[in-house]
Amino acid sequence: MKLARGTVLPLIAVALIIGSVSAAYFFSLRIMSNVKVEYPSPPQPPTVKIGIYKDSSCTTALTEIDWGTLQPTQTRTYPAWIRNEGDLPVVLSLQTENWNPPEAQQYMALTWNYAGEIPVNTIIAIEFQLTVFSNITGVTNFSFDTVITAEG
């Protein structure tokens, strides 16, 4: 097919106009985006923690009690300070375990003068009392573990 001499130039002009109009309708711009999504840290569960100390300023941890020499029917006291170092008020319980010799447990009792709840960041003074029963026999040296449990 052969085009007439005067039609080529108008066809080129129409093609350029259509190309320009098409570009106007289909122009796109690419913008890069970097997005950082920050999620809040999940809340930490509250902690239950206590410290037991030899001094009222809570600087020296109580790790051992030396009861010395005791006689039958004698009670000896030992002072201590307990600080609630957790995030919840706590209630404490006391028990003993690992008696050596095991039969010593039937001739002695460990108690304390603690009662109630300890609020957060509070220090309380307590006294442990070890009583030797009058019927003790065969025990000359002894040891045991004191277990204090905190519940919040």
* H-E string: HEEEEEEE
Strand content: 25-35%
Describe the oligomeric state of these chains in a short phrase: single chain
CATH class of the domain at 50-151: Mainly Beta
Adjacency order of strands in the biggest sheet:
1-2-6-4
Average pLDDT reading? 88
Globally, the shape reads rod-shaped
Count of helical regions: 1
Distance between the termini: 96 Å
Biggest sheet descriptor: 4 strands, antiparallel
Using the CA coordinates, give the radius of gyration. 42 Å
Low-confidence stretches: none
Q: What helical percentage do the residues reach?
A: 10-25%
What structural category arises from helix and sheet content? mainly beta
CATH-level-2 architecture of the domain at 50-151: Sandwich
Counting DSSP E segments of at least 2 residues, the number of strands comes to 7
User: In CATH terms, what is the fold-level topology of the domain at 50-151?
Assistant: Immunoglobulin-like
Secondary structure elements and pairings:
Elements (H helix, E strand, L loop, with lengths): L7 H19 L23 E4 L21 E10 L5 E11 L7 E5 L4 E2 L4 E10 L10 E9 L1
Antiparallel strand pairs: 1-2, 2-6, 3-5, 3-7, 4-6
Describe this protein's structure:
The protein is mainly beta. The chain has a domain at 50-151: Immunoglobulin-like. Helix content is 12%, strand content 34%. It contains one helix and seven strands; from the N terminus they run H-E-E-E-E-E-E-E. It has one helix at residues 8-26; strands at 50-53, 75-84, 90-100, 108-112, 117-118, 123-132, 143-151. The strands form two sheets. The protein has a four-stranded antiparallel beta sheet with strand order 1-2-6-4, with no helix packed on it. It has a three-stranded antiparallel beta sheet with strand order 5-3-7, with no helix packed on it. It is rod-shaped and about 135 Å long. The mean pLDDT is 88.
